[in-house]
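Q: How would the structure tokens look for this protein?
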Amino acid sequence: MNKIEERWHSGNLQRDMTIKIYGEGGVPFLIFPTQDAMSDNFENFGMIETLKNFIDGGQIQLFCVDAVDAETWSNFYGDKEWRAARQESYYRYIVEEVIPFVRAKNSSGRLPVAAGCSLGGLHAAILFLRRPELFAGMLSMSGVYDAKTFFSGWLNPTLYDNSPVDFLASMPPEHPYIALYNAKKIILCIGQGRWEEEGLRTTAILRDIFAEKKINAWTDFWGFDVDHDWIWWNRQILYFLPEFLKEEPR
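A: Here is the predicted structure in token form.
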């Protein structure tokens, strides 16, 4: 398997950030790590091995990024205004630095799929739902989509922009993004087992918002034995992956 590590100093974050690239072509996937993890997250928990045949067969190429969750979502005692602003800087890092990098490195000519598990699923949702023109779709497994969960109920305009259950609920029905969403593939998956409570609550909220706005999204609720855990995310990604290997939505 072809594996490359790239690293540069981010102007948006004023720190070095790493991206690990697996594969040499195919549909690009922008992979966000779980909470407080970094670009080696998927490899450390078996996802790269799970997807090995697709990577080696040239069907997919993974771009696994670092995150700054310890400064933002997990920084519970930090200043809330600063934490929200730092998350917005991370959003700009992805849009302004990572997306052009993915375009330059991937030869397929296809838009990337935003994907992640747990908090990585929240990142994927934020990026895709705010900038759907930059992505072919999103796959979020066990995400929590209410930013207020991590901020003790607090919300300001900056955090609002990073809280899908809030900004999507306020989107007017004539917004041009509705049609753009419906040209893409949107999949959210959640188990109903241990440690999935907040994910269940917020996934159900998004499901209802999607229905109200007439957004075609697949929200899939797995069984009561399906926990917030890597053993299930490895199974789920194999189950949903074929949906993203079809002809690219426009």
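The chain is about 40% helix and 20% strand.

Strands lie at 3-10, 15-22, 27-32, 60-65, 113-117, 137-141, 185-190, 218-221.

Upvote if useful.
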